[in-house]
Amino acid sequence: MIRKVIRKERGSRFMPEGPRGHERSAWLTGIAHALPERSVSNEELPASLAADPSGIFKRTGIRSRHWAGRGVYTSDIGADAARNAIARAGLQPSDIDCLIATTQTPDHLIPGIGVSMQAKLGLGEIPCFDLRNQCSGFLYALQMARSFIETDTYSRILIVSAELHSHGLGHEPRDAHITALFGDGAGAAVVTSSPSGPRPLRVIWQEIGADGRGAAYLRHRAFDMSLIPPWDVRGFGDDPHAILYPEMEGEQVFRTAVRRMVATGKNCLKALDLDPKEIDWLVPHQANASINKTVASILGFAPGSVLGNIERVGNCSGASIPILLSEALLENKIEAGHRVLMVAFGAGFTWGSTLLEAAS
Hints:
This protein is α+β, with helices and mostly antiparallel strands and 360 residues long. It has helices at residues 53-60, 74-88, 113-121, 137-150, 176-179, 241-244, 250-271, 289-299, 310-313, 320-330, and strands spanning 27-34, 39-41, 64-66, 98-102, 128-131, 156-163, 185-192, 201-210, 218-219, 247-248, 281-284, 339-346, 350-358. The chain is built from 10 helices and 13 strands. The strands form 3 sheets. Strands 5-4-6-7-1-8-13-12-11 form a 9-stranded mixed sheet, with helices on both faces. It has a two-stranded antiparallel ribbon with strand order 2-3. Strands 9-10 form a two-stranded antiparallel sheet. The protein is globular, with a radius of gyration of 20 Å.
C-alpha cells in the first residue's frame, strides 16, 4: 500500500518547527508498564457488592482487573513501570532531566507522586510535574513533554501515569457499577528528540480539551475543602458515602465519552487528510468495551485494528493507554511505519487524541 506522507503545519494542533527552522520531533521510547500481581475476577469481587459477574462482563467487557495489596502506594506501581521504561530506552536514571507524573489517586494530598517517584528511582534533582487530568492524563502529559522537546527545554523526559483505585472503592451495592470497572496499574515512557530503543514512536499530531461543566457527572471528592477540617465526615451531610467514594452518572458519561472521542479522532483525521484505513491501530482509553466499539464504528475502524485489554485489566484511568501501548509493543503488533491513533476521555470532563508513527 502506498502510504500518504503526512503534512506538518504550524499551529496549536500541529508540530511547530524547531530552532533555526529545523524541525524537532518528539519520540516515545522505552514504553513499559507494571501491574500488581493479584488479578481479581468478577467472581472474586467483594460479596457485599451483590454484583452479577456475567452482568458485569455484558455491560462493560471486563472479566478481571489487577488490585494491589495493603501497604502499596501509587508511586510504587509507577516507579516499577518507570524503571522498566528507562531500561528499555537504554538509559540510566541519571539521564532523565524531567519527570511528568499523572494520577487521580495520589499517595497523599501533599506532595504529588512525582517527587516520590523521583526519590524511589534515584533520579537527579530534576523538575517533577504532577498533572490531574484523570483518564486523559497521559495525553496531556505527552503534549507537555512534546512542547519541552520541541523548544529544547529538556531532552529526556520521563512520563509516568499510575493509578491505584482499589484501595478507595466502595463495597456497597450502590458502588457495584463503579467498583467493578477499575483496576490498578501504571504505564511509563521516555520522550526524547531522536529515535532510540526498540520501536520508537514519533508524535505527529495532538489535541486536548476539557469542559468543566461535566465535572459532577464523574468524580471522587474524598473530602470537602470548604469544611474545617475538610475530612470531617460530620460535615458531609446525610450521606457521607457519596463524598467518600467515587460517583458516576453512567449514561451521561457513556454518551459524552463517545461524542468527545469521536470528535477528537475526526479532528485528527481531517487535519492530516487521512482515511481510517491509513491508520494501522486505534488505541482508545479502556473505560468500557461498548464505548470503544461505538467509537471505532463511528470513526470507521475495522474491529481488527482496535487494540484493547479491558477484559483482563479493567479501567486503569490515565494509565490505560500507556499500558495498552506497552503490551502492543511487547507483542510486536506495532511494526515499522505503523500509525497509531490514541483517543481518551475522562472525568473533568477531559479528552484528547494523539497520532503516533513508528520509526521505519
